[in-house]
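In the previous chapter we treated chains in isolation. Here, by contrast, the input contains two separate entities that must be folded as one system, with a combined length of 472 residues.
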Amino acid sequence: MIKVYIKMFVRSFFLQALWNFERMQNIGFVYILKPFLDKVYLDEKSKQEALMRHIGYFNTHPYMANLLFAIVANLEKGKSENKENFLDISVIKNQMAGPLAAIGDPLFFGSLRPLVACFSILVMLLFMKFLDQNFQEYAIFVPIIFIVGYNVFHIVSRCWLMFIGFKFGQDSFSVISNTKTLMPIIKYAVFIVTAVTLFVYLLIFKSSPISNLFFGIKENDLALYIIAFLFSIIFSRLGVVFLLYSIIIICSLVSYLRI
Amino acid sequence: MTESIFFYALIGSFCSMDITAFGQFMICRPIFCAPIVGYFMGDVNSGLWIGMIVELLWVNAIPMGVIVPVDVSLISILSTFWVCKYFLGVQEAAVFSLVLAIPFAYFYRDMDISGRNFNTKIMHFVEDGIKNQKYWRMYAGIYVGLFLFALRLFLFYLFAMYVGGLIYSGLYLQLSQFIILGLRNAWYLLPIIGFALVIKEFNIFRRLFLKER
């Protein structure tokens, strides 16, 4: 059975390979579950019925799906052994998919990833400050720190979710509900790391070439950064692309007026 | 030139596939893929800086539900490729490459949506297969889905790197002096926008205030 679990784990990375607007991750889910169903359903008819059960709409967070397919595998195993009277596995599956996505998206993509990314940027700025001439040699460690740092959490989480899914079945929710305390901590950490990174950035570039270009006064540097910061906060609702283009246009206009 | 475009288009498509199609190891994130391309092309600094700007600006670009976000790896890889290919180490050119890469990314998003619509047809093909106990269609569906995803990315990267590169280098050489000075200023100001957006997004004071209420 271990081989089947490993197969399922490897296949979980292909969950969204055939992502579509109609039923989203359905084929990916069936693809992951197939080795398990091959094992528990020995007659073709039952196996086909099981596969057809999971061909419907399905969408959740790709990492949290590991928990769900473990729970579903447990339920399918129970059904194949006729141990329990099941209402409808696909209904249970879809009822769980939404809440799991609601946990996974803000936890992994909305908090953990920005945290590791901001930390990598902080490391990059510290390298710039302290390595100076040797920065080019060590710069490649920044993306490596990001990818290793993130994937340690990512891979461990996927393994853990799959493990508790198989171990606790539908009771897994009580286990993962503990992660809700983790989310605000990560969000606070992102804020603090970003603030520190911004501080280090200002320390390094307080006398950037901007001071020579904008009115030629060095003391204006910090004021300029503050203006850009406030401008971004105020107009952030208009979108990233608007902010990026408007800053470039404003910079060009200022340069033009000075010329 | 042609060989290198093929190589970097391959790297680009591999990184961009990570957004939805395979893995989600975050090799698609600008802070990773831009410096890697920069490293191969001999200017890791520009790659890191572009990666930092794009990462901070699009920190919220999450493929959630039916939302197809703009491909941030495409923006960062194209920018890094163009600047390293045509104007190695020139900061102003790096900012200009960002300006030009964004429309390409939005154009690709429309292509991606069409591709995902086509996946629905493959999905129905797989469904019919399961109904008739032709389980090989499931594997075929997954691999064809992956292949088409990679193919459209690869072709788009080829097109954008070559045609976009010609447009980029041609346009940059025509820019006025004051625009180039403006681009150099923007090089230092763009990360500030990024920091502002992240701080606004994760504003702990707002959270504390809301909790109190």
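Chain B has eight helices and no strands. The longest helix of chain B spans residues 91-131. Compare these points with the single-chain example from earlier in the chapter.
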